[in-house]
Write a structure and sequence with these properties.
The complex is a heterodimer of chains A (70) and B (227). Chain A is an alpha+beta fold and 70 residues long. Chain A is built from 2 helices and 3 strands; from the N terminus they run E-H-E-H-E. In chain B, the strands form 2 sheets. Chain B has a 9-stranded mixed β-sheet with strand order 2-1-3-4-11-10-9-6-7, sandwiched between helices. The longest helix of chain B is centred in the N-terminal third of the chain and has 12 residues. Chain B is globular, with a radius of gyration of 16 Å. Classes of the chains: A alpha+beta (70), B alpha/beta (227).
Protein backbone atom coordinates (compact mmCIF):
# COMPACT_ATOMS: atom_id res chain seq x y z
CA UNK A 1 0.00 0.00 0.00
CA UNK A 2 1.28 3.42 -0.85
CA UNK A 3 0.93 6.25 1.64
CA UNK A 4 1.76 9.88 1.03
CA UNK A 5 2.77 12.14 3.85
CA UNK A 6 2.58 15.86 3.16
CA UNK A 7 4.75 17.94 5.46
CA UNK A 8 4.48 21.74 5.48
CA UNK A 9 5.88 24.52 7.65
CA UNK A 10 3.61 25.21 10.60
CA UNK A 11 0.92 27.83 10.06
CA UNK A 12 2.12 31.20 11.29
CA UNK A 13 5.81 30.31 11.11
CA UNK A 14 7.87 32.36 8.66
CA UNK A 15 8.46 30.28 5.51
CA UNK A 16 10.99 32.20 3.40
CA UNK A 17 10.82 29.63 0.61
CA UNK A 18 7.05 30.07 0.34
CA UNK A 19 7.47 33.83 0.47
CA UNK A 20 9.98 33.77 -2.40
CA UNK A 21 7.65 31.62 -4.55
CA UNK A 22 4.71 33.90 -3.74
CA UNK A 23 6.67 37.00 -4.78
CA UNK A 24 7.64 35.48 -8.13
CA UNK A 25 4.08 34.33 -8.79
CA UNK A 26 2.84 37.85 -8.07
CA UNK A 27 5.55 39.37 -10.26
CA UNK A 28 4.14 37.21 -13.05
CA UNK A 29 0.67 38.60 -12.57
CA UNK A 30 -0.91 35.83 -10.51
CA UNK A 31 -2.97 36.57 -7.44
CA UNK A 32 -2.02 34.40 -4.47
CA UNK A 33 -2.97 34.84 -0.84
CA UNK A 34 -0.21 32.66 0.57
CA UNK A 35 2.30 30.03 -0.44
CA UNK A 36 3.93 27.47 1.80
CA UNK A 37 6.54 25.07 0.49
CA UNK A 38 6.80 21.66 2.10
CA UNK A 39 7.72 18.14 1.11
CA UNK A 40 6.15 14.81 0.24
CA UNK A 41 7.30 11.49 1.67
CA UNK A 42 5.92 8.41 -0.05
CA UNK A 43 5.94 5.21 1.95
CA UNK A 44 5.15 1.74 0.68
CA UNK A 45 4.00 -0.43 3.57
CA UNK A 46 1.98 -3.56 4.25
CA UNK A 47 0.95 -2.48 7.71
CA UNK A 48 -0.79 0.89 7.91
CA UNK A 49 -0.94 0.90 11.68
CA UNK A 50 2.67 2.02 12.02
CA UNK A 51 2.50 4.96 9.66
CA UNK A 52 1.33 7.54 12.20
CA UNK A 53 4.11 6.56 14.61
CA UNK A 54 6.74 6.76 11.86
CA UNK A 55 5.53 10.21 10.90
CA UNK A 56 5.33 11.52 14.43
CA UNK A 57 8.62 10.07 15.64
CA UNK A 58 10.75 10.47 12.53
CA UNK A 59 9.34 12.33 9.59
CA UNK A 60 8.08 15.61 11.00
CA UNK A 61 9.11 18.04 13.72
CA UNK A 62 6.03 19.20 15.65
CA UNK A 63 7.69 22.43 16.70
CA UNK A 64 8.00 23.72 13.15
CA UNK A 65 5.90 21.52 10.85
CA UNK A 66 2.43 20.06 10.33
CA UNK A 67 1.53 16.98 8.34
CA UNK A 68 -1.30 15.28 6.49
CA UNK A 69 -1.40 11.57 5.67
CA UNK A 70 -3.09 10.68 2.39
CA UNK B 1 39.16 16.30 29.87
CA UNK B 2 38.98 13.68 27.12
CA UNK B 3 37.14 14.62 23.96
CA UNK B 4 35.27 12.46 21.45
CA UNK B 5 34.41 13.85 18.02
CA UNK B 6 31.42 12.14 16.35
CA UNK B 7 31.71 11.27 12.70
CA UNK B 8 28.54 10.89 10.64
CA UNK B 9 28.39 10.35 6.89
CA UNK B 10 28.56 13.94 5.66
CA UNK B 11 30.33 15.48 8.67
CA UNK B 12 32.98 17.82 7.30
CA UNK B 13 34.36 19.72 10.29
CA UNK B 14 35.29 16.56 12.17
CA UNK B 15 38.99 16.69 11.28
CA UNK B 16 39.25 20.45 11.92
CA UNK B 17 37.82 19.91 15.39
CA UNK B 18 40.03 16.90 16.06
CA UNK B 19 43.11 18.82 14.88
CA UNK B 20 42.37 21.88 17.02
CA UNK B 21 41.75 19.82 20.15
CA UNK B 22 44.82 17.65 19.70
CA UNK B 23 47.39 19.95 18.12
CA UNK B 24 46.37 23.42 19.26
CA UNK B 25 44.73 22.80 22.63
CA UNK B 26 46.84 19.72 23.41
CA UNK B 27 43.93 17.66 24.69
CA UNK B 28 43.28 13.95 24.40
CA UNK B 29 40.78 13.31 21.60
CA UNK B 30 39.46 10.46 19.50
CA UNK B 31 36.81 9.95 16.84
CA UNK B 32 33.46 8.31 17.64
CA UNK B 33 31.74 6.45 14.81
CA UNK B 34 27.99 7.03 14.36
CA UNK B 35 27.40 3.26 14.64
CA UNK B 36 28.90 3.05 18.13
CA UNK B 37 26.35 2.22 20.82
CA UNK B 38 28.32 3.24 23.91
CA UNK B 39 30.40 6.23 24.86
CA UNK B 40 33.23 5.22 27.13
CA UNK B 41 36.28 7.00 28.42
CA UNK B 42 35.18 10.38 27.09
CA UNK B 43 34.25 13.47 29.13
CA UNK B 44 33.02 15.68 26.33
CA UNK B 45 31.36 14.68 23.06
CA UNK B 46 31.58 17.09 20.13
CA UNK B 47 29.05 16.93 17.31
CA UNK B 48 30.92 18.67 14.49
CA UNK B 49 29.68 20.77 11.60
CA UNK B 50 28.86 19.48 8.16
CA UNK B 51 25.89 17.95 6.42
CA UNK B 52 25.21 14.70 8.23
CA UNK B 53 23.22 12.37 5.97
CA UNK B 54 23.14 15.13 3.36
CA UNK B 55 20.72 17.20 5.48
CA UNK B 56 18.02 14.89 4.09
CA UNK B 57 14.52 15.17 5.58
CA UNK B 58 15.62 18.02 7.91
CA UNK B 59 19.11 19.11 8.92
CA UNK B 60 20.20 16.80 11.74
CA UNK B 61 17.04 14.68 11.68
CA UNK B 62 18.57 11.44 10.43
CA UNK B 63 21.73 11.73 12.53
CA UNK B 64 19.51 12.06 15.61
CA UNK B 65 18.21 8.53 15.03
CA UNK B 66 21.60 6.75 14.88
CA UNK B 67 23.06 4.45 17.56
CA UNK B 68 25.59 7.07 18.73
CA UNK B 69 22.81 9.66 19.09
CA UNK B 70 20.95 7.41 21.49
CA UNK B 71 24.18 6.88 23.43
CA UNK B 72 24.69 10.67 23.55
CA UNK B 73 21.28 11.18 25.18
CA UNK B 74 22.26 8.68 27.85
CA UNK B 75 25.70 10.28 28.24
CA UNK B 76 24.16 13.77 28.61
CA UNK B 77 21.58 12.59 31.10
CA UNK B 78 24.42 11.30 33.26
CA UNK B 79 25.99 14.77 33.18
CA UNK B 80 28.55 14.32 30.37
CA UNK B 81 29.44 17.44 28.37
CA UNK B 82 28.10 17.69 24.82
CA UNK B 83 28.89 20.47 22.34
CA UNK B 84 27.13 20.74 18.98
CA UNK B 85 28.65 23.03 16.38
CA UNK B 86 26.52 24.12 13.40
CA UNK B 87 25.12 20.81 12.08
CA UNK B 88 25.87 19.43 15.55
CA UNK B 89 23.59 22.11 17.03
CA UNK B 90 20.86 21.04 14.60
CA UNK B 91 21.30 17.42 15.70
CA UNK B 92 21.01 18.40 19.38
CA UNK B 93 17.69 20.19 18.82
CA UNK B 94 16.38 17.20 16.86
CA UNK B 95 17.45 15.02 19.80
CA UNK B 96 15.57 17.36 22.18
CA UNK B 97 18.73 17.77 24.23
CA UNK B 98 18.41 21.46 23.38
CA UNK B 99 15.21 23.47 22.92
CA UNK B 100 14.01 24.91 19.63
CA UNK B 101 14.77 24.20 16.01
CA UNK B 102 17.02 25.62 13.29
CA UNK B 103 15.22 26.75 10.15
CA UNK B 104 16.27 28.01 6.73
CA UNK B 105 17.94 31.40 6.93
CA UNK B 106 15.42 34.19 6.56
CA UNK B 107 17.10 35.53 3.40
CA UNK B 108 17.38 31.99 1.95
CA UNK B 109 21.12 32.43 1.42
CA UNK B 110 23.93 30.24 2.62
CA UNK B 111 25.81 32.70 4.81
CA UNK B 112 29.57 32.31 5.12
CA UNK B 113 31.25 35.19 6.95
CA UNK B 114 32.68 36.40 10.25
CA UNK B 115 30.26 37.46 12.94
CA UNK B 116 30.57 39.19 16.28
CA UNK B 117 29.07 37.48 19.30
CA UNK B 118 28.17 38.98 22.64
CA UNK B 119 28.71 36.73 25.64
CA UNK B 120 25.46 36.59 27.59
CA UNK B 121 26.42 34.20 30.36
CA UNK B 122 29.98 33.49 31.42
CA UNK B 123 29.27 31.29 34.42
CA UNK B 124 28.90 28.07 32.44
CA UNK B 125 31.49 25.33 31.83
CA UNK B 126 31.61 26.44 28.18
CA UNK B 127 32.18 30.15 28.73
CA UNK B 128 33.97 30.54 32.05
CA UNK B 129 37.12 31.92 30.38
CA UNK B 130 35.02 34.67 28.81
CA UNK B 131 33.39 37.69 30.40
CA UNK B 132 29.75 38.64 30.33
CA UNK B 133 29.22 41.36 27.73
CA UNK B 134 32.53 40.58 26.01
CA UNK B 135 32.46 40.62 22.20
CA UNK B 136 34.22 37.83 20.33
CA UNK B 137 34.59 37.04 16.64
CA UNK B 138 34.07 33.74 14.85
CA UNK B 139 33.04 32.55 11.40
CA UNK B 140 29.63 31.15 10.47
CA UNK B 141 28.84 29.00 7.44
CA UNK B 142 25.28 27.76 7.20
CA UNK B 143 22.04 27.80 5.24
CA UNK B 144 19.78 26.67 8.05
CA UNK B 145 20.71 28.58 11.17
CA UNK B 146 17.58 30.54 12.03
CA UNK B 147 17.06 29.58 15.65
CA UNK B 148 13.41 29.36 16.55
CA UNK B 149 11.61 28.83 19.85
CA UNK B 150 8.08 29.91 20.75
CA UNK B 151 7.90 33.13 22.78
CA UNK B 152 7.18 31.54 26.15
CA UNK B 153 10.17 29.23 25.73
CA UNK B 154 12.35 32.18 24.72
CA UNK B 155 11.43 33.93 27.97
CA UNK B 156 12.29 30.82 29.94
CA UNK B 157 15.69 30.57 28.23
CA UNK B 158 16.41 34.21 29.05
CA UNK B 159 15.36 33.88 32.67
CA UNK B 160 17.48 30.80 33.23
CA UNK B 161 20.53 32.22 31.52
CA UNK B 162 20.57 29.50 28.88
CA UNK B 163 21.42 31.90 26.06
CA UNK B 164 25.22 32.05 25.87
CA UNK B 165 25.85 34.02 22.66
CA UNK B 166 23.94 36.58 20.61
CA UNK B 167 24.90 37.96 17.20
CA UNK B 168 25.92 41.59 17.65
CA UNK B 169 27.76 44.53 16.11
CA UNK B 170 31.44 45.04 16.77
CA UNK B 171 30.56 47.34 19.69
CA UNK B 172 28.33 44.70 21.28
CA UNK B 173 24.96 46.15 20.33
CA UNK B 174 22.44 43.47 19.42
CA UNK B 175 20.70 44.75 16.28
CA UNK B 176 18.66 43.41 13.41
CA UNK B 177 21.55 44.21 11.03
CA UNK B 178 23.87 42.00 13.06
CA UNK B 179 21.49 39.05 12.78
CA UNK B 180 22.77 36.92 9.86
CA UNK B 181 19.90 34.45 9.63
CA UNK B 182 16.80 35.78 11.37
CA UNK B 183 17.24 33.90 14.66
CA UNK B 184 14.84 34.91 17.44
CA UNK B 185 16.55 37.28 19.86
CA UNK B 186 19.73 37.16 17.70
CA UNK B 187 20.53 33.87 19.41
CA UNK B 188 23.72 32.17 18.22
CA UNK B 189 24.19 29.59 20.98
CA UNK B 190 22.11 28.02 23.76
CA UNK B 191 22.57 25.62 26.65
CA UNK B 192 20.27 23.08 28.25
CA UNK B 193 18.84 23.65 31.72
CA UNK B 194 21.61 21.72 33.44
CA UNK B 195 24.38 23.52 31.54
CA UNK B 196 26.14 20.42 30.24
CA UNK B 197 24.82 20.50 26.65
CA UNK B 198 25.66 23.46 24.43
CA UNK B 199 24.89 24.18 20.78
CA UNK B 200 26.03 27.06 18.60
CA UNK B 201 25.96 27.94 14.91
CA UNK B 202 29.38 29.72 14.75
CA UNK B 203 32.52 27.61 14.33
CA UNK B 204 34.91 27.96 17.29
CA UNK B 205 37.19 25.31 15.76
CA UNK B 206 37.85 27.66 12.84
CA UNK B 207 38.95 30.49 15.12
CA UNK B 208 41.85 29.02 17.05
CA UNK B 209 45.04 30.11 15.33
CA UNK B 210 46.88 33.32 14.51
CA UNK B 211 47.34 32.03 10.99
CA UNK B 212 43.58 32.23 10.47
CA UNK B 213 43.38 35.69 11.95
CA UNK B 214 41.60 34.96 15.20
CA UNK B 215 41.65 32.68 18.18
CA UNK B 216 38.54 33.57 20.18
CA UNK B 217 37.33 29.99 19.65
CA UNK B 218 40.16 28.76 21.86
CA UNK B 219 38.50 30.34 24.90
CA UNK B 220 35.66 27.83 24.60
CA UNK B 221 38.03 24.88 24.61
CA UNK B 222 40.07 26.36 27.46
CA UNK B 223 36.85 26.88 29.43
CA UNK B 224 35.93 23.25 28.91
CA UNK B 225 39.29 21.76 29.82
CA UNK B 226 39.23 23.69 33.09
CA UNK B 227 35.62 22.62 33.79
Amino acid sequence: MRVRVLITPKEGLLDPEGRAVKEILEDNGYKVKSVRVGKVVELEVDDLSQVKEMVEKFLYNPLIEEYVIE
Amino acid sequence: MKFGVCVFPGSNCDYDTYYVLRDVVGAEVRFLDFRETKIQNVDCVILPGGFSFGDYLRAGALASKTPIAKAIVDFAQKGGFVVGICNGFQILTELHLLPGALLKNENLRFVCKDVYLRVENSSTPFTKKLEKGEVIRMPIAHGEGRFYVPEDELKRLEEKGQILFRYCQEDGSVTKEANPNGSVGNIAGVCNETFNVFGLMPHPERACEDLLGYYDGLLLWYSLISA
